[in-house]
Amino acid sequence: SCIIEFNGVTKKYGQATAVDNISLSIREGEFISLLGPSGCGKTTTLRMIGGFELPSQGSIKIDDKEAGNLPPNHRPVNTVFQNYALFPHLSIYENIAFGLKQKKIPKSQIKSETDEMIEVMGLQQHREKYPRQLSGGQQQRVALARALVNKPRVLLLDEPLGALDLKLRKKMQFELKKLHEQFEITFIYVTHDQEEALIMSDRIAVMNQGRIEQIDTPQQIYSNP
Ligand code: ADP
Ligand code: ADP
């Protein structure tokens, strides 16, 4: 079944068309990548799902409800960006617990869920440190932990490994795939790296100049480029 449905979605900024008449059904639980060169509309597509932008035309439905009518904090969606966007003045624990603390949840539960996520991500020895004391890969793991601890049904990932060196990127690709299997949530993954999309995705939407040119499994894309 589908969790997100784009129907004829266009996004314009003034005269410029960032997203051009996209229709797309995203299945619950899949790992789908939006692949294409810089400027082709990947981030804009993601930002519309997250509720940071509204379409100029067309509709986006999440769970059969018009996304534009849902306030961003009522969407079953969380986002991880390339630049981590951690809070510099909060410890790793406090960064990860932040979202849970905005909800009315007992303190003991916040602690147990945050500690569990810290363990899943192998961040135990960094619990009381601050973001600047961590490497890029560790910070990205904190950003993932912070998003996943809220148990979103959809995780939006905008070039989350883009700032990492090649070796670390390979390692994190593997970890992300494992997390996707472990958490059974929908991953929507923006990348301009074809190899990365081929390795990680269940399906790839190939974008160019605001349009989806092809959408298929990695196997199909690889054999019919
Ligand atoms: P990608 O993520 O594939 O690099 P974007 O979605 O960021 O592409 O951008 C698609 C196009 O829309 C680009 O030409 C970009 O300059 C333009 N664009 C994106 N956001 C804005 C904005 N807030 N204002 C004006 N133009 C924008
Ligand atoms: P990426 O290429 O990694 O997707 P960009 O550097 O194009 O990201 O864009 C970063 C941010 O700036 C995004 O939030 C995007 O919406 C915004 N942006 C991109 N192009 C423009 C533009 N021409 N005018 C205003 N904002 C833009």
From TrEMBL:
Domain called ABC transporter: residue spans: 4-225
GO molecular function, one term: ATP binding
Keywords (A to Z) from UniProt: ATP-binding, Cell membrane, Membrane, Nucleotide-binding, Translocase, Transport
Leader sequence segment: none
Keyword flag Zinc-finger: no
Domain of life, source organism: Bacteria
Protein name, entry field: Spermidine/putrescine transport system ATP-binding protein
Organism: Cytobacillus purgationiresistens
Phylogenetic classification of the source organism: Bacteria, Bacillati, Bacillota, Bacilli, Bacillales
